[in-house]
Structures are given as structure tokens and as C-alpha cells.
Amino acid sequence: MGHLQAGTVVTLEVVRNTDFGHFLSDGSNDVLLHKNEQNGDIQIGQKVEVFLFQDKQGRLTATMSLPEVRVGTYGWCKVVEVKNDLGVFIDIGTSKDILIHRDDLPKLKEVWPQIGGSLYCTLKTDKRGRLLGKLATENVMEELFVKADRNVLNKNVTGIVYRTLHSGTFIITEEGYRGFIHESQRDKEPRVGDRVTGRIIDVKVDGTVNVSLLKRGYETLDDDAEKIYTYLQSRGGSMPYSDKSAPEDIEKRFSMSKASFKRALGRLLKAGKVYQEEGWTYIKKD
């Protein structure tokens, strides 16, 4: 279609009508604006601003719904479909979803975006002129970042994963901070596009932050206490473990440190759920 390119916004003139829409022209090339893609009534001779994309048959077509994401511009898009042999499809606000090819996704499919994931991306065309999506690079993401100060240390943050490495995960928080989650600070590796919530555990000189997805000590007390109490119930209400037990015995049985065990047990004692006697712990009967 000459210089008319999919993924761009152009102003074209309405040159003729059909039963299924209007043909628009730049003076040299015509493109169809289907009636389902127009907003309001338009007349021959009118100039209209449209976004160009390919229909399901691969033909260049136009829409008056102008997406934020275009060739050369970036925006956030939702993942609407995943095909393991092809890539993921994103919704850019037009009637046709756009493919991000597997070659532009992480090599590990385990961290590919899932349906509902949010991706910061742009559009591009391949050698055949087909419109494709493309994830933002680190250089592009840098334009979005704002620097954090030490006042945010230990604050809770929510962010979207935009990049993954073997050593950890990169997110952009709702505040715009560039966050890094080391592999030791997560229970499982999140996917690109996932929304995660954690806490800031360090603020770097350059204003970036380190984030942990692990629970704080006091937040894990309930889980650890529940684990101990469930074990007590499974043994009929008693167990040969107390705050005097050896650390290695506690680690072997409960997979927790002696300090964590004592804190959790202390919570159960304070709540009146258990009592200790001669190195044993018992469920307190009502």
C-alpha cells in the first residue's frame, strides 16, 4: 500500500461509499474503513483520522478507534491469549488482537505472560509488513522510572514484572520505582506481566529499590503457629517439642528455624491454645 503503514495513525479523505463501509485515500492509495470501525456519520470529502492495521485476511484496513500503542509509541496492554507454539496476543484497543511473537518473549516459557498480564509494549512490522507487538527494552523502561529516597524503606509496594533473569526479577512499581527482586526474596518466580506485592528492603544510591516478596517475621507467625497447631492435632494433642527443643530437631520436623518456632509457639501460648510441661507441648482443653 505504498507508504501507508500498519500500526500508524494517518489522516485520510473519504472518497467513496459501499454497503459495508467507506474507502479512504491519501491520494495514491485506498484503504477500507468498515462501518463497524467508524465513529458516527462521515461524508465523502471529509478528512478522518484513522489507525491502520491488517484484517484477518491480511489486508490493510482502518479504524477510527485510535489506540495508545502504535509504531513508535508505547503503552500498557493486556494479554488476552497465549499460544505456546506462537506467542501471546495483546489487546491494543482495536477489533484485532496483536501477536507478540515467541522470538520476542523470554526463552523460558515458564515466565511467559499469562492471560490478564500487563505488558508495556509498542508495535512493529516484520519484513512482510505484518503488524506485531514488541516488549519495551530496559532503555525504554528507564523513561518511566522515578527515583526512590530512603523514606520508602520497608514500605509495601505493588508492581508489574517487566523483565526476568536467572538471578531475579525486575518490576516497575505503581510509584514508578525500578525494583529488583533477588531469587532469594521470593517463593516462586513470577511471570512477565504479573502484578506482585512486596516490601522495599533496600534503596540504592541511584534511586532504584530492592524488593522482597517474602512475608515479614510477624506476618509469618500465623502460618507457623497454624503449622504447629495442626501437627499437635494430628498427634492427638501432644508433641515432644517445646521452646527447649534442639534447633536441628525443630528444623527437621517443622522446616523452620528455632527462632521462628519459639515466636510461633509463644503466640499459641499467649492465645491460650497450648501449654508446656517437661519438654512437651499440649493442646489446652476447654
TrEMBL record:
Outline the extent of the S1 motif domain. Answer: 154-216
Task: Say which domain of life the source belongs to.
Answer: Bacteria
Q: Which InterPro entries would you find in this protein's record?
A: CvfB_fam (IPR014464), CvfB_S1_2nd (IPR048588), CvfB_S1_3rd (IPR048587), CvfB_S1_st (IPR039566), CvfB_WH (IPR040764), NA-bd_OB-fold (IPR012340), S1_domain (IPR003029), WH-like_DNA-bd_sf (IPR036388)
Which SUPFAM superfamilies does the annotation name? Nucleic acid-binding proteins (SSF50249)
Stretches that traverse the bilayer: none
Q: Listed GO molecular functions?
A: nucleic acid binding
Listed Gene3D superfamilies: Nucleic acid-binding proteins, Winged helix-like DNA-binding domain superfamily/Winged helix DNA-binding domain
Q: Which family is this protein grouped under?
A: Belongs to the CvfB family.
User: What's the protein here called?
Assistant: S1 motif domain-containing protein
Task: Look up and give the organism this protein is from.
Answer: Caldibacillus thermoamylovorans
Q: Which gene encodes it?
A: yitL
